[in-house]
Structure formats: C-alpha cells, structure tokens
Design goal:
The complex is a heterodimer. Chain A is of the alpha/beta class. Chain A has two domains: about 180 residues, 3-Layer(aba) Sandwich (Rossmann fold), CATH 3.40.50; about 90 residues, no CATH class. Chain A has 13 helices and 13 strands. In chain A, the strands form two sheets. Chain A has an eight-stranded mixed beta sheet with strand order 7-8-9-4-10-11-13-12, with helices on both faces. The termini of chain A are far apart. Chain B is α/β, with parallel strands linked by helices. Chain B has a domain of about 230 residues: Rossmann fold (3-Layer(aba) Sandwich), CATH 3.40.50.300. In chain B, a hairpin with a 4-residue loop joins strand 1 and strand 2. In chain B, helix 5 runs parallel beside helix 6. The N terminus of chain B is likely disordered. Classes of the chains: A alpha/beta, B alpha/beta.
Chain lengths: ~375, ~350
C-alpha cells in the first residue's frame, strides 16, 4: 500500500471524514479539455451535512463521482487528493483511523470496491435508472449486503427487511419481493436509500435525490434522511440546485460555479450575508413567496444574472464569473485569478472584492 | 358560471371538462375501467390575466391544458373561447378547419426545450412554420416577421439560419416562445415552461413572459408544479388533485388563507430558501391516489388530517365561497388553515 495508507492519530483533524485537496477532474474531448472540477477544496465532517449547490454543468456531480472513483470515461482525475479518514475497528467505535488517498486507488481495484457502497455510498437523482428493472428490490438490496458483510442469504434478507422498515416503507415483507416498476417514485427512492444505507456508510452522497419527486413526497424523503442521519451518525454530501432544499438540509454550504467553489460557509451566513456576487445573484433570482402579498403582480420582476454559463471549452482569464458579474472591475477581474478570501467565521469567498492584495493592486492601477 | 360570459366576459371559459383514458384488458381489449385524468374541471380566464394551475405529477394539469387546446380530444365538457376573428366559439365543437384557425390565437409552449424543437429545422423554419402553415406570411415578409419575433424574445435575428443544437436550454425556451407568439395569439398555455431550466435562466424566462404579456396583451394558463414560480407569475391559482380542481382563488388570498387542506399541505411542503426557522412540515402521509381507482367521497380524505365521516361518504361540491373563491371541501367554512405567507399587518 506504501504511502497511500498512513496511520494517523485520532485527533488529527478530529471531525474530518473526507478532505478534497485541490481536486482536478478533466474531460479530454475532441473539442477541447473540459475542466469539470478545477481545483476544489472541501472538507466533509463526520455526522454533518455538506450542501453543494450550483447550476447544471458546475461540476457538483463530477466532484461526487470523483470521490467514489466512478468518473465516466474520458474523464479522469488529473491531480489533487481525496483523503478518506477511514475508521479502524468495528463501526468506528475505535477513535483511530487510517488515512487513504482515494485518488491513488485503482478505480476498479479491491480497495475502492470495499469502500464504495459500503463506507461511502450514493443516492442518485432518478430512482428508476438507479434500480435494475429486472430484479426485485430485495435482491438488489441484499446484493450489497452480501458483498460487503459476512452474512448468508437469510440474514441478508432480514437486514434488507429491517432497512426497508427503517426508510418507512409500508409493508416491507411484501415490498422486498416486488419489482421497481410496481413502486411509485417516492417508494423507489426509499428503496434506493435503503440500499445505500444497508451497510451503515459513514458518508452518504446524495445527488439531487428529490429533484424528480413531487413536493409532498420530497418533504417526506427530506424528513427521512434527517432522521436516518441522526440515528446512524453519518455524514451527508447533499448535491442540489434547489436553494430551498439546501436551506433545510445543510449545516455547511459550498457554492460551485464552473468547476470551482466560489463561496463556502455555514448555512446561515450563506443565506443571510452572502458575499460572492454569484451567490447573491442566485439568491435574488429565485421567486420568494412573501412577494405575493408585498408587491403587485405587474411590478414583480426577478433579479437576473445577466448572460449564460459560458461553454465548457473556453477558459476565461481571471475570475470565471467576470463576464456575468455586476461588480466587475476591469483590469482586475478579467486579468487576475481571485484568491480565496476569508470574509467571516468559517466563511470564505473567491472574489477580488474581499482580497486585500487586489484592492491594493486596483488602487495602484487607478493611480498609474 | 355562465354569468361571466357576458359582454366583458372571460377570454376562455371551461365547463365540466373531462378526459377519461380507457383501460383495456384481455384479448378483445375490453374496456375494464377509466383513468379519469381530468374529471369535471371548470374554470375561466379573464383577458390579460395569468391563471396558474398547480398540482403534483399525475394530477391532470397537463392533460387539462392539452384538452383545452384540443391537442388531445376531451371526453366531455365545454371550452368557450372568445376568438378575435371567429367570435365566441366552443372549441370542443370545432371542425378540423376550425381547429386550424383557432390555433392562430390559442398557442402552447412546452416544458422540455430539447425535445420540443425539431433538430433538423433552422430557427427560420421553426418560428416561421406557424406563419407559413396558416398562410400569414411568406418570402421576405416571413423573414421579417421571424426576425421581429426573435428580437422580441431576446435573440439576435442573425441566428435565423442556425439549428437548435447550437443553443442553450434557456435560449431554446426563447425559440419555443417565439414560435408560439409568431401568429400573434391571444391565449398561451404554458406547460411547465421553466421547470427544466437553471435558477438564473428561469428568472430570465419568467421576466420575459411577464414583459411579453404586458406588451402584447397576452393571457396565460400557466401549468407548473413549483408553487413559488406559480405564485410569482399568476393573478389567480387553481390547485388540482387527482383530476379535479380542489381550490381556486386570487394568488395573495390562496397563499395567505388557503381553504382546502390539500392546499395547506402543499404549501407546507415547499422547501424555503431560509435556514432560520427550520419550520416543521405537515408531512403528508401516504401517496397521491390513483386516478384509475380513486378513493370514495373526497379523493383527498385518506391523507387529510381534518377528515370526518362525511368526507369518505360523499363527494364535496365545487362551490363559490366568496368573491371569486372556489373550493371543493365539506369543511371549508369551518376550518382555519395556515398559508405559506403571513397576512401582512394592517397599517
């Protein structure tokens, strides 16, 4: 194993479970290189929920796929580290953990396969495509259990029924023998969640798990995930474009734009004192229900972020958001890459507005 | 509701609209039942207003929109439309020719901007198609009209010779809008026009829809599942559940003082972009009833926390309970339900 595995003291980064350091995942296509994930730094803490929010194409799903090493070809991880603090001993009872750099593992090797679906598992957006249509729900849940735990078929079935009961599936003994097409969308998503939780993962990656569901079903699933997180003490990486869901689920939030994290903070400052112009724009461009009684419909207009997300092949100089930014500073934002600035307690933004060095540089330029 | 149909009456009035899809079984394809996708829907839309139609998937909101347009053939009911040229017509009774004529003033835009545009047609062909088919313009005049339409929806007329694949989701939705508005219609059914779009693009399209409504005097039937979007754009909102409208009211009233328990539950379930209260949901138990095999009485009673014996026994009637407020609930007059928004304090 060499240097991919080091035993570290328990209190070294005590609550960190997975750390991404300067992660880069690129797609080499005929049209050019798509930098889907371009230098992402993130820490997922034990038992906490990290919300990752951004519009389509910002790299939030590819970040998740990189952690599980399931980036589809021709994408590949070009650099960076994904450090997984794997607990040693049963169910993390022991305080010690080993440190594994997931980037160094072979994507189809035995080590990542012992982690994937076991210690780190994932719930996908479309529950119909995540389940095989020709196998029963029970078979698919038991498959994961038998693969990762030393149990026989009968025991696996008991665990599967128990998991289905845990996700509040009505009638689990009957549902276990049904096929996905016999279930409604919400029930399918419950089955997928049961499957992903069957090995008590320490990290659950949820990629838009409720986007395909109706609001009342969505509320049920969100409630369920919160309850299960409390019971099982697992960390959740919750990926979504829906700011409302982020506000309900996340402890901490990372906002992504074009493969980079532009702002990161605990959930309250993200919503109450957003710093990055992109985060501010996103929050202002969603309709707020209170406006219904405050303003006349005829005067009601939404704030818009001008322009569109640029195509993924062009590489912009300086800040990638500068062509759309209302705070654009010529000569700075389109020239210099913004540094990560500390803007509050555990609150960082990647923007020139808050960088002391660039402010000085801008002043110097104005004089010169 | 025919009293609304006077001189200054509504642009569109739908009465007892039904669309049943037969369920066939066995060798002889015998009809064994019906999916009542739209079951006795009545509504009216005034000129220049936006009527929002919300509900969860499978509730029949899209089928309602399509039945009104006669994109699918309704089973029963009446759709009265005040056409600027044909006068007051019952869309249900129109011949094929009549439908073609009415398509000038009744148009539709769709949810999926990727599948609703023919990839082998240029923008000129796509946006010009309705004009050409209706014989409204050809040659250079057609090009001028298309250029004008593209400009109106915020696209450059230079794009006219390009194909849809070169455009992003938001731009495609603009193209669909240009096609719908090309023959200068009165009434547009917008079927989930922004639900496939990203947040920042969604805001652009919603603003565009409102600007166009004001500039061109359009009337919208806005079908969507996202309550915040519907609240934003609609003058009045109708809430559908399993093929029936359960409540209809002006937007501020519906969102401050809902009268139907389903409306209340739907509003409580909206995830709010506000992390502070972590407000408790009324999480609705159970699943949406099947329109092929609905429950007895009020379709919502198995999931309703206010249900009494009467609710499972008899179906509530669709009644007007106040100035333009309609509800279909036995207990509407006695319940006091919580809305999504606080009533603003009186100054």
């Amino acid at each position: 194993m060499g240097d991919t595995m080091k035993n570290v003291a328990a209190n070294d980064g005590a609550d960190a479970l997975v750390e991404l350091k300067d992660l880069r995942t690129y797609f080499h296509l005929a049209e050019g290189v798509v930098r889907a994930v371009d230098g992402v730094n993130l820490t997922i803490k034990r038992g906490r929920t990290l919300g990752v929010v951004g519009e389509s194409g910002c790299g939030k799903s590819i970040t998740a796929h990189s952690i599980l090493r399931i980036v589809p070809s021709p994408g590949q991880i070009e650099g960076g580290e994904i450090l997984f603090h794997r607990p040693i001993g049963a169910n993390g009872a022991s305080s010690a953990c080993e440190l594994i750099d997931l980037v160094q593992l072979k994507p189809d090797g035995p080590r990542i396969r012992s982690i994937r679906g076991n210690e780190i598992s994932m719930v996908f957006q479309e529950p119909m495509t995540a389940l095989s249509p020709v196998l029963t729900v029970g078979y698919q849940i038991m498959e994961a259990i038998i693969l990762h735990q030393q149990v026989g078929k009968h025991e696996a079935r008991e665990i599967a029924v128990d998991m289905l009961a845990r996700v509040k599936m009505p009638n689990p003994e009957r549902i276990i023998d049904s096929y996905p097409f016999e279930l409604s969308g919400g029930m399918r998503q419950r089955a997928v969640i049961a499957m992903s939780l069957s090995c008590s993962p320490s990290l659950l990656i949820a990629d838009e798990p409720t986007t395909a569901l109706d609001v009342t079903t969505e509320a049920q699933i969100l409630d369920l995930m919160r309850d299960l997180q409390r019971d099982l003490d697992m960390a959740i990486m919750y990926i979504t474009h829906n700011l409302g869901v982020i506000a309900e689920m996340a402890d901490e939030v990372a906002v992504m734009y074009l493969g980079r994290i532009v702002e990161q903070a605990p959930v309250e400052p993200i919503f109450f004192t957003p710093k990055h112009p992109y985060t501010q724009g996103l929050l202002k461009s969603i309709p707020h229900l209170d406006e219904v009684v405050k303003t006349d419909k005829a005067d009601r207009r939404l704030w818009t972020i001008k322009g569109v997300v640029p195509d993924p092949y062009t590489r912009l100089r300086g800040c990638t958001f500068h062509p759309r930014c209302p705070e654009f500073m010529e000569g700075v934002c389109d020239q210099v890459e913004p540094p990560i600035a500390k803007v509050g307690l555990n609150h960082v933004a990647r923007c020139h507005l808050y960088a002391t060095t660039t402010a000085a540089a801008a002043a110097a330029r104005d004089q010169g | 509701m025919s009293n609304h149909m006077s001189q200054a009456g509504p642009l569109l009035e739908v009465t007892a609209l039904k669309k049943y899809f037969p369920i066939r079984k066995g060798f002889f394809k015998r009809v064994v039942g019906y999916v009542k996708a739209v079951d006795d829907v009545s509504l009216y839309v005034m000129e220049g207003e936006t009527l929002g139609l919300v509900g969860e998937s499978g509730c029949g909101k899209t089928t309602t929109g399509r039945s009104i347009m006669r994109a699918i053939e309704p089973t029963a009911g009446e759709v009265m439309f005040r056409d600027p040229e044909l006068g007051l017509v019952n869309v249900r009774e129109l011949s094929k020719d009549g439908i073609r004529q009415i398509r000038r003033s009744m148009r539709m835009i769709f949810q999926d901007p990727y599948n609703s545009l023919n990839p082998r047609m240029t923008l000129l062909d796509i946006v010009g198609a309705p004009l050409r088919a209706m014989g409204l313009a050809k040659g250079t005049e057609l090009e001028d009209r298309v250029a004008e339409m593209l400009r109106r929806v915020g696209l450059s007329p230079e794009y006219m010779r390009r194909y849809p694949h070169a455009f992003s989701g938001g731009q495609r939705q603009r193209i669909g809008l240009a096609r719908a508005l090309a023959p200068n219609p009165k009434f547009v059914v917008c079927d989930e026009p922004v639900s496939a779009l990203d947040v920042s693009v969604q805001a652009q399209i919603l603003n565009l829809l409102q600007d166009l409504q004001q500039d061109l005097g359009l009337t919208y039937l806005f079908v969507a599942h996202d309550l915040s979007v519907v609240a934003h754009i609609s003058d009045r909102v109708a809430v559908m559940y399993v093929g029936k409208i359960v409540e209809l009211a002006r937007t501020p009233e519906l969102f401050t003082t809902p009268l139907h328990p389903y409306t209340e539950a739907l509003m409580a379930a909206i995830p709010r972009p506000d992390p502070s209260p972590r407000a408790k949901h009324i999480v609705l138990a159970g699943e949406v009833a099947s329109p092929a095999n609905p429950p007895s009485g009020c379709y919502f009673h198995p999931r309703c926390e206010y249900a009494v014996d009467q609710c499972s026994a008899e179906e509530p009637v669709w009644e007007e309970v106040g100035d333009g407020r309609f509800v279909k609930c036995h207990r509407a007059r006695e319940l006091s339900l919580t809305g999504a928004v606080q009533v603003p304090a009186m100054a």
